[in-house]
């Protein structure tokens, strides 16, 4: 091989290496953006879950305490009906109606 052929091969090799470097830089950028967007995607899932747990916890506690007080009141009414207590002795039909309603709701036994 003479010098001219070697120079031509070196020039071709340099051009190929430059193309490879550009392609490699493109792949690195693509991998970087893929990682960034995967982190963003995970954060878009995790952050709303954490926020909902933080903000919904008092609401759920309030709802459960309200439910508990309603069930306690129903229990009190049920026990009053079972004991036959009434504010006015003439309202026995209303208490019977209330007992029937509680039975329909599967609250009264």
Would you mind describing this structure in some detail?
By secondary structure, the protein is mostly helical. The chain has helices at residues 3-83, 92-104. The protein has one domain (3-104). The radius of gyration is 39 Å and the shape is rod-shaped. The chain is built from 2 helices and no strands.
Strand tally: 0
Please give the domain count: 1
How many distinct helices? 2
Major β-sheet profile: none
> Which parts are unreliable, with pLDDT below 50 for 5 consecutive residues or more?
none
Q: What value does the average pLDDT take? A: 84
Radius of gyration: 39 Å
The ordered string of helix (H) and strand (E) elements is HH
Which descriptor suits the 3D outline? rod-shaped
Strand content: under 5%
Helix content: over 70%
The termini sit apart by 107 Å
- Kindly name the structural category: mainly alpha
Give descriptors for this structure:
109 residues, 2 helices
Topology record:
Layout: H1 3-83, H2 92-104
Summarize the structure.
With 109 residues, this protein is mainly α. It contains 2 helices and no strands. It has one domain (3-104).
């Amino acid at each position: 091989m003479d010098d001219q052929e070697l120079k031509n091969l070196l020039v071709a090799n340099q051009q190929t290496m430059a193309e490879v470097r550009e392609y490699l830089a493109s792949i690195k950028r693509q991998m970087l953006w893929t990682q960034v967007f995967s982190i963003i995607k995970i954060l878009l899932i995790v952050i709303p879950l954490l926020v909902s747990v933080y903000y919904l916890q008092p609401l759920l506690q309030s709802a459960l305490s309200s439910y508990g007080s309603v069930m306690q009141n129903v229990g009190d009414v049920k026990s009053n009906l079972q004991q036959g207590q009434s504010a006015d002795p003439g309202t026995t039909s209303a208490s019977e109606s209330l007992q029937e309603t509680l039975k329909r709701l599967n609250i009264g036994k």
